[in-house]
Amino acid sequence: MKAWFKEGEHWVWFSAASVSISVVLVVGLLLMISIRGLVHFWPHEVYDYQLQSENGQTEQIVGELHDTKLKEIKNSESGMIEKIPQFLMKVGNRDIYGIDFRWINTADIIGRQDRLDNGVTVIERFEYGNVYGHLQTIIQEGQVVAEQKQVLPMMHQLVEASQTLYQRINHIEKVTLGGINYQLEQLRLEQKKLQAEDQYDTEAESALNQQRDELNAEFREQQAVLKGLYSQLNRMGEVSLSLAGGQVIQVPFKSIVRFWQPNNMSVFEKTGFFFNSIGHFLFGEPREANTEGGVFPAIVGTITMVILMAIFVTPMGVIAAVYMSEYAKEGLVLKIVRISINNLAGVPSIVFGIFGLGFFVYIIGGSIDDLFYEYALPSPTFGTPALLWASLTMALLTLPVVIVSTQEGLSRIPTALREGGLALGATQSETIMKIVLPMSMPAIMTGLILAVARAAGEVAPLMLVGVVKLAPELPIDFNAPFIHLDRKFMHLGFHIYDVGFQSPNVEASQPLVYATSLLLVLIIVGLNLGAITIRNRLREKYKALGN
């Protein structure tokens, strides 16, 4: 044993055990996030409980069973501490009960149905959460048009029709009218610019007014179409449901996102509902203070910011690394620069956010507004937190990683290759561009992979330089120049923080936190896999040259 320790074998086993434990922890974490996140999209069965309150009255609770826990209470007769199970029920009907979730004690349950009858219906609404009840009638313009067995098939048709109308309405509001408003705003700014430059003459005024009149006419035309669509939506009527305790509620079809009957669904139907729910989550917009709906704006903002960050940080990091490795002479200044770069990697990210806010937003952005957008002041164009400044801030944050990784790659290139290039008549720049840098591309891609992984998960600096809770417009749309660097944006990391710690409805937000976290991990993995694929191909391409 003494010889075994002397040879250092214990350190090998210790390292192997540490790596194994780390892998198990990472896999366990991913499994926990996946299970808790994906369960949110599966249709839960609806349960019915009869409770007896302290005053002897009975109460009916209908909803989804979401969680259980043990609660310690003191038995009034024996004086002993007992652990009684508690159920967390999602009862919905927030406009009636005031809350979505409710804890109930199993000791208060006097009657229970493990499954309700097949007629129980869950309706997801744009506001006030889900409705749990039994379909009664469909009412249109004050008249009952369907009841009993006629309600379900007619409801399928009406909900499908309302979804089609909502898609048309959303396209007109977001794309058509949004584009017209954008063009009108550009005309207003163009007029202010001409007035500031004393070029706003009669001819310019006539041209701008003509364009403005055409846009206003198109706007009124689209508004008329929109009014007709809303009128059709309102004429669809409402469906009435009986809730727990016999109470009846009317739900307008214009407020219904979708509906389902979980206790009457087969495994195949539940699987289809599961994937449909994931689609709603990926391509829908957030609702109800981000506790419901989808995360599509946050996905677009995250990917756009990461790609712009990569575009900014890669040339900066590579140029800095090439200069320090190939051109700069060894000395005190270079040592200080290298020490500064290494120390920069340990600076807290919030410090980068403060620097970005002060330097990029207020100094650079304010100067750009003064030089090129003075006519738009006091409304800032670039002198406010936006996508551009967030991308540059994250580029600075990840710059040390790219520099160090590139330097490591450059140091592995044999000196003989450099000398061979120079001996054949190539200049130093040509040797670097055609021999050294191509062979260093795997190391550069490694640095970029690490940069992307860190930038996609950072939240603190982004809160200061462009990320918002809800963005009225996407940073990418169909209006030129298509990528709007001066707009604020949503980010998955900040969305997780907001839903997890700022949400007024904690129980409803917990599944979304796990689901959004899983999505963020998958996006990072996807971006990294793309970079790793490119790196491996480059490594194979230049392996023969290196040998």
CATH topology annotation of the largest domain: MetI-like fold
- By helix and strand content, what is the structural category? alpha+beta
SSE order, as H and E? HHEEEHEEEEEHHEEEHEEHHHHHHHHH
Describe the largest sheet: 6 strands, antiparallel
Round the Cα radius of gyration to an integer and report it.
31 Å
CATH homologous superfamily descriptor of the largest domain: MetI-like
Q: Under the CATH scheme, which class of the largest domain?
A: Mainly Alpha
Helix content: 55-70%
Number of helical regions: 15
Supply the CATH architecture of the largest domain: Orthogonal Bundle
Distance between the termini: 43 Å
- Please report which band the strand proportion falls in: under 5%, 5-15%, 15-25%, 25-35%, 35-45% or over 45%: 15-25%
* Mean pLDDT metric: 86
Contiguous low-pLDDT stretches (5 residues minimum) are: none
- The 3D shape can be described as flat
List the domain count as a whole number: 3
DSSP strand count: 13
Walk me through this protein's architecture.
It is a single chain. Helix content is 59%, strand content 16%. It has 547 residues and is α+β, with helices and mostly antiparallel strands. The protein has three domains: 46-120, SH3 type barrels; 138-269; 300-546, MetI-like fold (Orthogonal Bundle), CATH 1.10.3720.10. Strands 6, 7, 8, 9, 10 and 11 form a six-stranded antiparallel beta sheet that branches. It has a five-stranded antiparallel beta sheet with strand order 4-3-2-1-5, with no helix packed on it. Strand 7 (130-140) and strand 8 form a beta hairpin. The longest helix is centred in the N-terminal third of the chain and has 46 residues, at 151-196. The two termini are 43 Å apart.
